[in-house]
């Protein structure tokens, strides 16, 4: 008798068709077949839309949530198993139970946490914080989410090798990059008077950066730059150069970085040319050393859309600085809104009269740091008429009568900042109050003091008996955080001019 051919049954074990889900790195994982009659219920969502099936809840966690016991391979026992065990032992029992019950959600939870807390890829500390395998794992899974990258410039090729070993050819999400020098190299260069980096750094690894970070918007470089690579960052908006750059490299930047809005050249070099700076039509903020500005001042002042012009390294070249300030005010006196000046290099306050600060007819704010007034009459210094606020920072010899004269010459002031002005006494408050009351304005003048000030102590001691009744004319506040040191001289211009 002929036997019948065996029939092929479709899905003989009646297994469910299992769903697939995607985790943070883009890989697709197929879930293990459910055992017996255990059913898959609702879907849980984690972080950035990552989903994973949840098992049906159980009345008894210990019996229903048990994990399948699998025999570990010897290699796993030697490495992964013991590393996991060491990490697990550092957790308290409640955290261990959470991980035990929710182990399938752990990768998605890690990716979500990293995306919110690990946006910076810092090669200064990466090798200290993680081993090679952990470095590669982090870089691979975060390559599309890094926003900042900090390279060690004189070890740039080593940093690039780390990315190459991880198989990462581009980090397109990065918008800000800093090329920093190792502290020991930087300090030795500063002591010898050299630019950061000098000849210590190889230039050829720099060519890899534009392809690696094609969406870069902000770049800061402490190292010397001799080669063309910055102009290939088509989206670049901010460039800060603390180390020397060659003329050809700078010319390429000025000619091709059409979206550049902020340019800070903070290295000492008077011989560079800015002849193509007019091609940077979007440039709004510009920082130059005093010497470089002096030699390129005609080209710079043609940039009528500038909002900020900063002069640095002024302390050692005080006379040249005064000439530059005078030139700027001759050209743009009617559009200057705010001036911030570190007066360290000036021997006496006559510089105010020499540069012609009083010509600024629309000056809304004036900040003077490290200024000596040498017991001079303020009116004879041709002090400008300021509309909104005056800030005096670390002015060790300013006296009561001088500050009162400033307030008298600037009617309608909103604020006066007095930070580290030890010669002022409570009498200055009385004088300012009388001037303010005579102006008959609808708002008080506010005096802002540093945290530890004898003037503030005097105000508080008389507050309940006197000053609380004078709040419509004068009030006092204190700064919570001290102001950062001024970087030499800044001119802020009215953008509508």
Tell me what the structure shows:
This is AT12868p. InterPro entries: LRR_dom_sf (IPR032675). By secondary structure, this protein is an alpha/beta fold. The chain folds into 3 domains: 56 residues, no CATH class; 196 residues, Alpha-Beta Horseshoe (Leucine-rich repeat, LRR (right-handed beta-alpha superhelix)), CATH 3.80.10; 165 residues, Leucine-rich repeat, LRR (right-handed beta-alpha superhelix) (Alpha-Beta Horseshoe). Helix content is 30%, strand content 18%. The protein is built from 16 helices and 19 strands. The chain is flat. The termini are far apart.
Main sheet specs = 15 strands, mixed
Distance from first to last alpha carbon: 107 Å
Q: Find the CATH topology of the largest domain.
A: Leucine-rich repeat, LRR (right-handed beta-alpha superhelix)
> What form results from the Cα inertia axes?
flat
Please identify the structural class as seen in this structure.
Answer: alpha/beta
Q: Given the structure, what is the number of helices? A: 16
In total, how many beta strands? Answer: 19
Mean pLDDT: 82
Summarize the amount of helix as a percent range. 25-40%
Strand portion, in percent?
15-25%
Low-confidence regions: 1-69, 191-199
What number of structural domains do the residues give? 3
CA radius of gyration: 33 Å
In CATH, what is the class of the largest domain?
Alpha Beta
Adjacency order of strands in the biggest sheet: 5-6-7-8-9-10-11-12-19-13-14-15-16-17-18
Organism: Drosophila melanogaster (Fruit fly)
Region (Disordered): 49-72
Protein name: AT12868p
InterPro entries: LRR_dom_sf
């Amino acid at each position: 008798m002929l036997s019948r051919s065996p029939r092929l049954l479709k899905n003989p074990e009646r297994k469910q068709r299992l769903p697939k889900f995607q985790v943070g790195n883009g890989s697709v994982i197929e879930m293990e077949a459910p055992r017996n009659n255990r059913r898959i219920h609702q879907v849980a969502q984690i972080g950035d839309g990552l989903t994973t099936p949840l098992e049906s809840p159980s009345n008894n966690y210990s019996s229903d949530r048990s994990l399948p016991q699998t025999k570990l391979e010897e290699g796993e026992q030697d490495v992964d198993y013991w590393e996991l065990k060491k990490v697990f032992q550092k957790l308290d029992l409640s955290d261990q139970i959470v991980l035990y019950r929710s182990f399938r959600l752990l990768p998605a939870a890690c990716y979500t946490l990293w995306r919110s807390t690990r946006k910076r890829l810092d090669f200064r500390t990466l090798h200290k914080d993680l081993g090679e395998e952990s470095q590669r794992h982090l870089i691979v899974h975060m390559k599309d989410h890094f926003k900042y990258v900090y390279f060690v410039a004189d070890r740039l090729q080593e940093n690039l090798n780390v990315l190459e070993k991880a198989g990462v050819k581009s980090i397109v999400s990065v918008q800000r990059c800093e090329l920093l020098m190792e502290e020991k190299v930087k300090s030795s260069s500063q002591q010898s008077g050299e630019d950061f980096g000098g000849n210590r750094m190889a230039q050829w690894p720099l060519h890899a950066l534009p392809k690696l970070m094609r969406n870069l918007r902000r770049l800061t470089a402490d190292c010397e730059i001799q080669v063309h690579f910055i102009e290939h960052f088509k989206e670049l908006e901010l460039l800060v150069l603390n180390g020397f750059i060659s003329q050809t490299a700078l010319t390429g930047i000025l000619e091709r970085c059409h979206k550049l809005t902020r340019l800070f050249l903070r290295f000492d070099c008077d011989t560079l040319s800015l002849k193509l700076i007019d091609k940077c039509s979007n440039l709004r903020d510009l920082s130059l050393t005093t010497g470089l500005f002096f030699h390129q001042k005609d080209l710079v002042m043609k940039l009528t859309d500038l909002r900020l012009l900063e002069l640095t390294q002024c302390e050692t070249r005080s006379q040249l600085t005064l000439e530059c300030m005078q030139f700027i005010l001759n050209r743009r006196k009617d559009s200057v809104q705010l001036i911030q000046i570190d007066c360290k290099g000036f021997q006496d306050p006559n510089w105010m009269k020499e540069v012609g600060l009083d010509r600024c007819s629309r000056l809304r704010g004036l900040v003077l740091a490290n200024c000596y007034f040498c017991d001079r009459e303020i009116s004879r210094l041709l002090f400008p008429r300021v509309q909104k606020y005056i800030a005096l920072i670390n002015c060790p010899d300013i006296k009561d009568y001088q500050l009162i004269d400033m307030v008298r010459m600037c009617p309608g002031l909103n604020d006066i900042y007095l930070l580290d002005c030890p010669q002022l006494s409570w009498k200055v408050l009385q004088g300012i109050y009388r001037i303010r009351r005579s102006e008959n304005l609808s708002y008080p003048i506010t005096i802002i003091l540093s945290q530890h000030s004898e003037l503030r102590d005097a105000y508080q001691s008389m507050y309940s008996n006197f000053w609380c009744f004078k709040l419509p004319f004068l009030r006092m506040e204190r700064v919570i955080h001290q102001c950062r040191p001024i970087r030499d001289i800044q001119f802020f211009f009215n953008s509508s001019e």
